Amino acid sequence: MPGTFTVIVINIIIAGVILAEGVFAADPYIALQHTYNSREIRNIEKFYSVATGPFSEAEWETGSRLQDSLDNLGHIVFTKSHRQKETEALFRTILAGCYRDSNVAGELAMSLRRKGYNSAAIIEPFTCTKNDSMTVIQTPRALWLLRDETNELLFRFPGKPSEFTQPFFAPQGDKVLFELGDSIYVVDLPTRNVHTLQPYGGVSPYKGEIENSFPQLSPSGKYVAYIANNEWEGWSSLCVIPESDSSFILIDAFNPPIANTRESAVKNFRWHPKEDVIFFVMGYGAGTIRVGGDIYCVDMSGNCRLSLSADKANREEITMNISIERDTLTYEVVHWDEEYCYFVDLEKKTANVDDLLNVFRSR
User: Fold this and answer.
1) Residue 9 main-chain phi, psi, to 5 deg
2) Bond prior to 54 in cis (omega within 30° of 0)
3) Contacts of 278 by beta carbon, 8 Å cutoff, 6+ apart
């Protein structure tokens, strides 16, 4: 019925959800280990699941038996499929549970290993995006908005569960942005209107452009920035969609505005909290995506400067894990061993974004 709460019990409690009659059904993937309200969930940073596999098509009978046995035990179970690029072979991974306690997920993983499923491991398939008053939870099939004492379905993805990046709040907190398929979606929270952006009108110079793109709205609301072609290894660029909906490349990986950075990749970015200026991590395109390079600053006219760099002589590099909250930029510096194979040390550091911006504008 409209406005009612549905609560299901299957070994664990499923969060109460406001439903619209005839439109949405309860999403089972929001299952949590304990009952709590939306205020409590804002203190939860991660959710945990257990992944087993991948199973090839020849092994899927074994995977199917595991899926059925987990389902019969009352676990929340779903599968994720992917094709190997070289052979086009199909593989499936089984995911079970959605827990806020990693120890509970660990017990399930150990149980599966004892039964011979040696690949069972804890993962974090669900992510939270927060601001001062709201939380958005991303599950494989939907986005959920948690505000005050209500848990509300914000957007249900059509068809099968999809891969897409973590949603982002607009700086004013009135919109949520996320990617799906070949488009970027902007949900206006007051009206629930959904605006779809297709970079370059859907005809992109990059193959597979909208993938791990981290779409984010500028403080003025005039621009949506995203990373194009952000694959595990490759040369990704920073692009912008202005109000006219016509994309342009701000930082081109193949022709960057900074000397000695050719064939680099833009790996992550954040807008300045008040200015239409972007701080981004850029480094060599090959190697693990976790590792970045240096932090640069660029404005909407394409003026670009180096803002923060690591000590290359000391085998240091800034990782892609950056964030900006209020006036503070937080980043990580990794120190490698002599063969650049292992992390020797990982140090968190901070910088004032206004100080960095002043230096940028003074050059």
Assistant:
1) -120, 115
2) yes
3) 225, 238, 250, 269, 270, 271, 272, 297, 298, 299
Distance of CA 307 to the CA centre of its chain: 24
Domain presence at residue 156: no
Same domain, 224 and 92: no
CATH code for the domain in which residue 221 is found: 2.40.128.660
Q: What is the pTM of this model?
A: 0.68
Contact between 238 and 280 under an 8 Å Cβ cutoff? The reply is yes
In tens, the pLDDT along 284-297 reads 876 554 477 899 99
pLDDT digits (tens, 9 = 90+) for 331-345: 999 888 887 777 788
Q: Write b or e for each residue in 219-251: b if 16 or more Cβ atoms lie within 10 A of its Cβ, otherwise e.
A: beeebbbbbbbbeeeebbbbbbbeeeeebebbb
Structural domain harbouring 253: 163-362
Nearest to 320 by CA among 328, 332, 310: 332
Report the alpha-carbon distance of residue 332 to residue 351 in Å, rounded.
11
244 SS3 class:
coil
Containing H/E element for 240? strand 237-242
